[in-house]
Design a protein that fits this description.
The protein is mainly alpha-helical. It contains 9 helices and 4 strands, in the order βαααβαβααααβα. It is globular, with a radius of gyration of 20 Å. Pfam families: Fam20C.
Length: 220
C-alpha cells in the first residue's frame, strides 16, 4: 500500500525490502551495544567532530580500547563493509561480552544497506581515510576481489543464486560493489602514498609463536 506517512511506495505494487536475522536472547548471549566513534549527527543543527575535523582519528587513538587493541582495525573493517553496501546508519556496534575487549564486532542492523546503487557515500569510509590503517588480510581480500577472475559482483551473484529468494540483489547493486571496491582501494593507495605501507597496512597474518616452554612440551 502507499500512504503519505510512509517514506516509500511500491512501483507499481512491488517494493524493495530487507530481511532480518535475530541473534540469541541477551540471556543466552550477553552483548554490549557501543556507540560508534564515527556516529552521525542525524540532525541539521550541528555536526559531529569527525564530520568537520580531518584529524579526528588522533583523538580516537588516545581512547581505550582504540588505543591498545585491534578494535580500531575492526572499526575500519566494518566501515569498509558499510561502504560496500551503502549503509550510513552505523550509529552503534555490538560485541559478545564473553570474548572481552578483543572480541569481534557484530555487523548487526544493516537494514539501510543497498539503498541507492547510483550513489557512493564517501563519508562512510571516514574511519579508513582519517586513520589510514587497514588489516593486511582485509587488503589482500579486497585486492583479490578486484581481480577479473574473482570480481566481487560475480562472486556475490553466484553465491546469491543459491538463495531461495534469488536473485536478492538487482544487477545495478551488484555492479555498484565493483565500483565501490575500487574507491576503497584508491583510499588505501592514497594513505600508502602519504604514510608508507609499513604504517598503513597492519600485519595480522603472522601467527604468534608458542613460548619456549610450551614448545618443549609439544616436543615431548
Amino acid at each position: 500500500m502507499c500512504k503519505t506517512e510512509y517514506a516509500v511506495c511500491g512501483n507499481p505494487h512491488l517494493l524493495e525490502g530487507s530481511l532480518s536475522a535475530f541473534l540469541p536472547s541477551l540471556n543466552l548471549a550477553p552483548r554490549l551495544s557501543i556507540p560508534s566513534p564515527w556516529i552521525r549527527s542525524y540532525s541539521f543543527d550541528g555536526k559531529e567532530e569527525w564530520e568537520v575535523n580531518p584529524l579526528y582519528c588522533n583523538t580516537v587513538r588516545e581512547i581505550y580500547p582504540y588505543s591498545s587493541s585491534n578494535r580500531l582495525l575492526n572499526i575500519v573493517d566494518m566501515a569498509i563493509f558499510d561502504f560496500l553496501i551503502g549503509n550510513m546508519d552505523r550509529h552503534h556496534y555490538e560485541m559478545f561480552t564473553r570474548f572481552g575487549d578483543d572480541g569481534f564486532l557484530l555487523h548487526l542492523d544493516n537494514a539501510r544497506g543497498f539503498g541507492r546503487h547510483s550513489h557512493d557515500e564517501i563519508s562512510i569510509l571516514a574511519p579508513l581515510s582519517q586513520c589510514c590503517v587497514i588489516k593486511r588480510t582485509t587488503l589482500l581480500r579486497l585486492q583479490l576481489l578486484a581481480e577479473p577472475q574473482y570480481r566481487l559482483s560475480d562472486v556475490l551473484r553466484e553465491s546469491l543464486l543459491q538463495d531461495p529468494l534469488a536473485p536478492v540483489l538487482t544487477e545495478p547493486h551488484l555492479l555498484a560493489l565493483d565500483r565501490r571496491l575500487q574507491l576503497i582501494l584508491g583510499a588505501v593507495g592514497k594513505c600508502i602514498d602519504t604514510f608508507g605501507e609499513a604504517t598503513v597496512v597492519a600485519n595480522d597474518t603472522t601467527q604468534p609463536q608458542s613460548p619456549a616452554g610450551d614448545r618443549a612440551k609439544l616436543d615431548t
